Every structure is written in C-alpha cells, then in structure tokens.
Amino acid sequence: MANGTFSPWSEFTSGVPQGGVASPYLFLLHMSTQNVFYSDTLDIGYADDVGLSRAIPLTIIKEDTSMDLEAKQLEEWATSNNMLLNGKKPLEIRICFFRHYAQPAPLILGGQEVPVDIRTLDHPLNDLLPLKRELHHQAPEKQP
Predict the structure, then answer these.
(1) How many other CB atoms are found less than 10 A from the CB of residue 85?
(2) 64: Cβ–Cβ under 8 A, 6 or more apart, which residues?
(3) pTM score, two decimals?
(4) Is the separation of the CB atoms in 71 and 43 below 8 Å?
C-alpha cells in the first residue's frame, strides 16, 4: 500500500517481479521450501546459489551415498518447482585430514558428473589451530 492505494493483483507463472520491493522476500520464501534428505546436512542458500555440506567418516566413505541422495532431493525439488539446475556450475569440495583416503563414487547432478576439488589437511591437529582461529575470525558464531 502506498498513499492509501493498493497495487493491483497479478498472477505470475514463474519468477518474481524484477525491482519489486518484496521480490527478495518472495524469492527467499520460495527457496525456504527446499528440504534436505538428512537432518544433519547443512543447507546454505545465498541468492540463487545452494550449498550442501556433510561430514562423512572415512571408514564408510566408499559405501556412503548420502550426498547422492541430497543431490537427488535437490533435483526433485528443482523439477517440481519448474527450475533448471545449471550443470556447469556445481563443484564438489572434499576436505580431508589425510593425504591418502578411499575415493567415494562420483557425485551426479543434472545428469552430469560434478567436478571435484580435493583439499587435504594432512597436518597434526595442533598445526590447524591457527587455521581454526582464522576461520572463526572470518565467520564468527551466532550469538543466542
């Protein structure tokens, strides 16, 4: 409502009006309908990007299919909402504390194998303490 007048109702088949004051909120409301398969999967959304994160123990990494299930859940959600996933944009980042470990099966998203970026942190835990402080400094924890 502006100056005592409501704007007329409009029906949208997709997207939100560009430049509208409520558009970012409508988009966030739409994105909030996305669910993860496992309750301990971290789902991070920023604008039109989605990040999924899971900790997978090395003892089960060869048999683990949890990220595949999360990718399928994301694809199903996108399809049911008439959205297309950009097959050229995804990247799987693996962070491991060991130089040598079993390789999990490739992650498939949008019918394409997702490229992998492997980061090994094969240092004693004490060597990582400065890194932990640096990460905490860059992204402080939420205060209750």
Answers:
(1) 18
(2) 56, 104
(3) 0.62
(4) no
Dist CA 73 CA 44 (whole Å)? 15
Q: Specify the residue for token string 């039109």.
A: 48
- Residue 118 CA to residue 99 CA, distance in Å, equals 10
Integer Cα distance of 109 and 85 in angstroms = 8
Over residues 126-144, the pLDDT tens digits come to 454 554 444 444 444 555 5
Task: Please return the burial class of 66, using the count of CB atoms within 10 Å of its CB with bins 0-12, 13-18 and 19+.
Answer: middle
pLDDT tens digits for range 32-58: 888 888 888 888 877 667 888 888 888
Burial of 10 (0-12, 13-18, 19+ CB in 10 A): exposed
Structure tokens that stand for 58 in this block: 């090395």
Tell me the CB-side half-sphere exposure of residue 50, using CA atoms within 13 A: 22
- Residues belonging to the chain: 144
Per-domain residue ranges for the chain? Answer: 23-138
Comparing C-alpha atoms, which of 72, 38, 32 is closest to residue 53? 38
